[in-house]
Amino acid sequence: MVNVDKNINQHNAGWLFENISDNFDEHIKKSIPLYDQGHELICHYSDFFLKPDSVVYDIGCSTGQFLARLARHHEHKPNLQMIGVDTVQDMIDFASRLPVDDPRLSFVVGNALDFDMKKTDMVVANYTIQFLPPRVRQNLLNAIYQSLNWGGGAFFMFEKVRAPDSRFQDYANQVYTEFKLKHGFSEAEIIGKARSIKCVMEPFSTQGNIDMLKRAGFSDIVSIQKYVCFEGFLAVK
To answer: Where are the alpha helices (DSSP H) in the chain?
Structure first.
C-alpha cells in the first residue's frame, strides 16, 4: 500500500474509489486546481441550457457535491430532474446522505456505459472520462451525444490533459508538483499518488479530447477553463 493523502491509502497501480468518500472531497480540492470554481462555472453556464423541466445527468457524481450546488443554483425550477450516476456504492451512499432536502435530486449506482439515459438538456462529467479505459471512451461520448436534445443540449467535460509535446509536459508536471506541495501534500504522498494511478488514469491531450468529441458528433466545442494540465470543455449539440 502507498499513502496518497491523510486517511487515504492505495495500491501501486491500483487506485480505487471505494471506501474513501469521507475524505474524498478534501483530497480532490487539494489535488485539482480551480475545482470549486469549475463547479461554479458550470452552474453559471447552465443558465443557458436548463429549462424548467430539464433532465440533468452527472456522470461519475462521486459524493454529489456538484449536483447539490446545481440544485441550489436552480432552486426556482421545481420540475428539474438532476440524476447522479456513479459505479461506486460507497460514493452513492454518501451522496444520498447529504443534508439536502430536495426531491429533484437522485443518486443511482450504475455504469454510464450501460445506463439508459433519458433525453436530456445537460450532461456533466467532472474528471471522470480520464478514468475510463481509452477503448470505451468513444462509446460513452457517442451515447451522451445521442441522449442530448438537439439545438442546445450541453455536455460539460472537465479532464486532466496532456501537453502537446514532451517539453511542455515536463513544464506541466513540475508546475503541478509545486501546486500540490503548496496545498499540503508531502513529497511522499505525491509520489504515492503517481504510483497508485498508473494504468488507472490515462489523460488525453486537449486535441485528443476535442477529436473524441467531434467523432461523437459535436461540432460546437469550446474550452471554458484551463489551468496548466486541467481543462474544462463545453460541447453543444
So the answer is: 21-31, 35-46, 65-73, 89-96, 134-147, 166-182, 187-196, 206-216
Q: Which of 26, 10, 17 is nearest to 88 (CA)?
A: 17
How far from chain centre, in Å, is Cα 60? 6
Residues in Cβ contact with 69 at an 8 Å cutoff, skipping those fewer than 6 apart: 39, 40, 43
| Cα gap 120→142, rounded to integer Å | 14
| pLDDT digits 0-9 by tens, 85-137 | 999 999 999 999 998 889 999 999 999 999 899 999 999 999 999 999 999 99
Q: Give Cα 139 distance to the centre of its chain.
A: 17
C-alpha cell at position 70 = 446545481
